[in-house]
TrEMBL record:
Principal place of residence: cytoplasm
Positions with a binding annotation for ATP: N188, T227, L228, G229, A230, N231, G232, G261, D262
Species, as recorded: Blastobotrys adeninivorans (Yeast)
Keyword Kinase listed: yes
Positions contributing to substrate binding: N11, Y12, D13, G39, K40, G41, A42, N43, E143, D262
Lineage top rank: taxon: Eukaryota
Pfam families: PfkB
Function: Catalyzes the phosphorylation of ribose at O-5 in a reaction requiring ATP and magnesium. The resulting D-ribose-5-phosphate can then be used either for sythesis of nucleotides, histidine, and tryptophan, or as a component of the pentose phosphate pathway.
Activity regulation note: Activated by a monovalent cation that binds near, but not in, the active site. The most likely occupant of the site in vivo is potassium. Ion binding induces a conformational change that may alter substrate affinity.
Catalytic activity: D-ribose + ATP = D-ribose 5-phosphate + ADP + H(+)
UniProt cross-references to SUPFAM superfamilies, sorted A to Z: Ribokinase-like
Keywords: ATP-binding, Carbohydrate metabolism, Cytoplasm, Kinase, Magnesium, Metal-binding, Nucleotide-binding, Nucleus, Potassium, Transferase
Name of the protein: Ribokinase
Chain positions recorded as K(+) binding sites: D256, T258, A292, R295, G297
């Protein structure tokens, strides 16, 4: 049995769908409104859980919520999926994190505003080797305080635990030494462009292949994956000195891209932790993400293992 531990955000998503994005000072009628469970951390944990066998992978969540209805609902939802929430703390005096998401109905593209709430109360002194004891992989993103993310990567790496890092929202000022503690860096093309300070990749396979080896060399991480939407993903392994491209799965109609990246990362991690090589893990993750974008909602859109295999 392998254990994936995700340290990250738990948010309540408030979603408005519209054909047209309003300009400054403009008021328009939206097409629909709904709420969903979210947060990159929670979504990635959920993806890892749904897209792996419960006989082979255990998933644990480390995070914080407020002592409010949103927080209790989020925690109970993860528990109902079979995720260990023992280390999801309920914090007094602060609200649960909230993401406000605007989705364009024609394209499925989204715009997200994030209020960290309880997610912002993590402290570096809480990050100890004991926190990750028994883990076979630790997953992190950037929706909790960055010093906590950096300390978590360092602590896990020093303990010999493989780390997967999705630096989103991306920070161009991330210290290079942080990436020395990253085994699997997973970014989209815009995040790769910021970190590499290269020309815009624009989801181009050719451009991404030019950038990715230089990115790994510059940052010092072991492996990197750049996702390219409809063009699939490219990867580079420093150990093998190998670059490759994995095509995307065909999508008939994109409905909502909100949870695609988190679905990809959770699916990818579930395969890597059980020994799959990079191309196989990426192909599986691409199939899962292709299903996710055909559905509404980040968490709700994440498919189950039986739908992908």
């Amino acid at each position: 049995m392998k254990t994936i531990t995700v340290l990250g955000s738990l948010n309540y998503d408030v979603v408005t769908r519209t054909k047209v994005v309003p300009k400054g000072g403009e008021t328009i009628n939206a097409e629909s409104f709904e709420t969903h469970h979210g947060g990159k951390g929670a979504n990635q944990a959920l993806a890892a859980r749904r897209l792996s066998s419960k006989d082979s992978v255990n998933v644990k969540m480390i995070g914080k919520v407020g002592n409010d209805n949103f927080g209790h609902e989020l925690k109970e939802s993860l528990e109902s999926e079979g995720i260990d929430t023992t280390k999801v703390a309920v914090v007094e005096g602060v609200r649960t994190g909230v993401s406000t998401i605007l989705v364009e109905t024609d394209s499925g593209e989204n715009r997200i505003m994030f209020y960290d709430g309880a997610n912002g109360t993590h402290k570096t002194e809480e990050i100890t080797p004991a926190l990750f004891a028994g883990s076979d992989m630790v997953i992190l993103q950037n929706e909790v305080p960055l010093p906590v993310v950096y300390q978590s990567l360092k602590t896990a790496h020093q303990a010999g635990i493989p780390t997967t890092y999705n630096p989103s929202p991306v920070d161009a000022n991330t210290p290079v030494e942080v990436f020395n503690n990253v085994d699997y860096l997973v970014v989209n093309s815009s995040e790769a462009q910021v970190l590499s300070q290269s020309e815009d990749i624009n989801d181009s396979v050719e451009q991404a292949q030019k950038v990715i080896k230089a990115l790994v060399t510059k940052l010092g991480c072991a492996n990197a994956v750049i996702t390219l939407g409809a063009n699939g993903a490219v990867y580079y392994s420093s150990k093998l000195d190998q670059t490759g491209h994995v095509p995307a799965s065909k999508v008939e109609k994109i409905v909502d891209t909100t949870g695609a990246g988190d679905t990809f990362l959770g699916a990818f991690s579930s395969k890597v932790v059980t020994g799959s090589p990079l191309p196989e893990a990426i192909s599986f993750a691409a199939k899962a993400a292709a299903i996710a974008v055909t559905r509404e909602g980040a968490a709700e859109g994440i498919p189950h293992l039986t739908e992908v295999e």
